[in-house]
Write a structure and sequence with these properties.
There is one protein chain. The chain has 594 residues and is an alpha/beta fold. It folds into two domains: 196 residues, no CATH class; 363 residues, no CATH class. The chain has 25 helices and nine strands. The strands form two sheets. The chain has a seven-stranded mixed beta sheet, sandwiched between helices. Helix 19 runs parallel beside helix 20, helix 20 crosses helix 23 and helix 23 crosses helix 24. The chain starts with 8 loop residues before the first strand and ends in an 18-residue tail after the last helix. About 1% of the residues have low confidence.
Length: 594
């Protein structure tokens, strides 16, 4: 069965705007009705522009919007063999998702063709796919799909994106992933025709087609960029606002800590209008931001291997999951998403996934400098704007949430990438020695990085035995402690003019001197009292409150190998469902359309 509407591309996003607050307000259907929920109203305000975008002649598209409440409960229920009506009876979150989904379906009927082009997907739609599975396989779904976490992480719904991609295999229709706060930016774009996204979509679609027409390209990943234009302006480059949305890695760790300006009243986070916004604007230091990112004194270029690019994702070169990330069909077949990682891990499904494909030799190894949209995975000329929500409790967020998330990202980066030079473009390296070394790096054969090497062996053998698992665990811990030591020293030196930064006090373990109210993960990287010059060599050298999370990260990396070996089963299950019966299928039609 073929689609009755023309489709050139699919956009995928996880819609999480105001979700927890709306669930509480809905109160099991006895509180605020769906049409008055803030999240629903926010989406409804963008529907006219969305309709313009998805129905643009010759560039027609579909948006798959995943609404995640009840995702974990649905997976647990499938593993326990529960029927759909049982799940709805037991879990309020699933009833909430169902109610919102049904209401969205009714308002779409007033927007013409948009009813067929906006697919509002809830966990209940996944039941139709995975609810048929054998218990021996289904019991592992939660572990593979969302890890051991009791709560849904911000990036957990990427497994649904994988399902969308698998269902579309063979159609030739690319899927572009973007964050909902890129597509829907409230007053910034809700009144704009096509939400101001047409040029971005058309350019990314052209970049994809260029690669499909190039026979030397096998698997691919590509993405657009966040908007860095303000960083080229003499007037705005000194401002916090110009940097706050320019890169996937946020600038908060580089903010100075100026004790006399700290808004103590804001630490509790009780105020809806946070004084921390004013604080960030007031104390921002461009020089510290550039050192954090490893950027040259002017513009957005890098000239040497330093900053976050050395220990993690290159700020201007690495692909971005929320900025039109696109994978080829081969890429989604070869590797599952990093959905089993329990913790929030920076760059887990864009930069790190790209590097893993590269180290497994899935990507093309020749340079294609044919034209700008075919030169690199990161499409520099195509920029999207991101509307990030304000932070009401900056110290708690940066020290207790964001920096640990970054740290875990740097660790996985060390496991996957054998040389930081691989994350740079040769034209961005000023020292001749670095350029020469870049060209001499091994790019064929078995990877020299610990995780892809072990994964390749497991794929070749079709197994991952306990002895191999234990040996790899030790290697992962050794590699991780070396990287954490490097991160600690780099961030400890992120100071200037007598000013400490959030990154430096966390690296040094001096958080209590500035924020005595904070505790646990906020307090620092290393165990209390460990000198900065001392290398970390074992997991017990970490802050006690980071220790268990670190071991979870190691276990999840080991489990990813098992997950990859089991991925073909999931592919078969997803692909076995009749085309046209799943809401994300191009040939699916709303019920009232027959």
């Amino acid at each position: 069965m073929k689609s009755s509407i023309p489709v050139k591309y699919v956009l995928y996003s996880h819609f999480g705007y105001h979700e927890p607050e709306d669930l509480k307000a809905w109160a099991n259907g006895e509180g605020t009705p769906c049409n008055e929920l803030d999240g629903v109203k926010f989406l409804a305000e963008h529907l006219n522009g969305l309709c313009d975008l998805l129905t643009s002649p010759a560039y027609e598209g579909v948006l798959v919007l995943f609404f995640a409440p009840g995702f974990a409960e649905c997976l647990d229920g499938i593993a326990q063999g529960k029927k759909l009506d049982q799940l709805l009876a037991e879990y309020e979150k699933l009833r909430f998702a169902d109610a919102v989904g049904q209401y969205i379906g009714t308002i779409l009927q007033t927007h013409g063709e948009l009813a067929s082009r906006l697919r509002f997907v809830t966990p209940l739609d996944l039941y139709d796919i995975f609810g048929r599975m054998n218990w021996a396989v289904a019991k592992d779904l939660r572990w593979w799909f969302i890890g051991k976490s009791a709560a849904i992480r911000y990036d957990a719904p990427k497994i649904v994106e994988a399902v969308v991609r698998l269902r579309l295999l063979g159609t030739g229709v690319p899927v572009f992933r973007l964050d909902y706060d890129v597509l829907f930016r409230d007053d910034e774009n809700k009144r704009l025709a096509d939400l101001g996204m047409f040029k971005t979509v058309a350019s990314c679609l052209r970049a994809y087609r260029l690669r499909m027409d190039e026979p030397s390209v096998a698997n691919l990943l590509l993405s657009a960029s966040y908007d860095t234009r303000a960083l080229h302006s003499h007037d705005s480059v000194q401002t916090f606002g110009a940097w706050s949305g320019a890169f996937a890695t946020r600038v908060f760790p580089a903010l100075p800590i100026v004790p006399e300006k700290l808004p103590r009243a804001g630490i509790s986070g009780a105020s809806t209008q946070s004084p921390w916004d004013t604080y960030a604007i007031d104390v921002f230091d461009q020089a510290l931001a550039r050192r954090f990112y490893g950027l040259a004194p002017n513009g957005v270029s890098t000239k040497e291997v330093t900053g976050i690019g050395k220990i993690g994702a290159h700020p201007t070169v690495s692909v971005i999951s929320g900025a039109m990330l696109c994978l080829s069909e081969g890429a989604i077949l070869d590797l599952p998403p990093f959905s089993n990682f329990t913790l929030n891990v920076s760059w887990i499904d864009d930069h790190l996934k790209y590097c893993l494909h590269r180290e497994l030799r899935h990507l093309t190894t020749i340079e294609l400098k044919i034209e700008p949209l075919l030169s690199d995975a990161k499409l520099d000329p195509i920029m999207v704007q991101k509307s990030r929500a304000p932070i009401t409790n900056l110290p708690s967020y940066v020290l207790g949430n964001y920096l640990p998330t970054l740290l875990w990202g740097t660790v996985v980066d060390a496991w996957i990438t054998p040389s930081p030079l691989l994350k740079y473009r040769p034209e961005d390296l000023l020292p001749e020695h670095d350029r020469t070394e870049w060209h001499n790096i091994k790019r064929t054969g078995r990877s020299e990085a610990v995780l892809p090497s072990a994964l390749q062996t497991a794929l070749e053998k079709g197994s991952f035995i306990m002895a191999e698992r234990l040996a790899l665990r030790e290697q992962l811990i050794i590699s991780a402690m070396q990287r954490i030591t490097e991160v600690r020293k780099q961030w400890a030196n992120l100071t200037g003019d007598g000013k400490e930064t959030f990154a430096s006090v966390w690296a040094k373990g001096t958080v209590r001197s500035y924020f005595p109210e904070l505790k646990e993960k906020c307090l620092g990287i290393a165990a209390d009292g460990m000198p900065l010059e001392q290398d970390l060599t074992q997991s017990t050298d970490l802050n006690y409150f980071l220790h268990d999370d670190f071991l979870t990260l190691v276990d999840d990396a080991l489990e990813y190998i098992e997950w990859t070996l089991n991925w073909p089963k999931i592919v078969q299950v997803v692909r076995s469902v009749e085309q046209g019966t799943v809401r994300t299928d191009m040939s699916w039609k709303p019920e009232n359309q027959g």
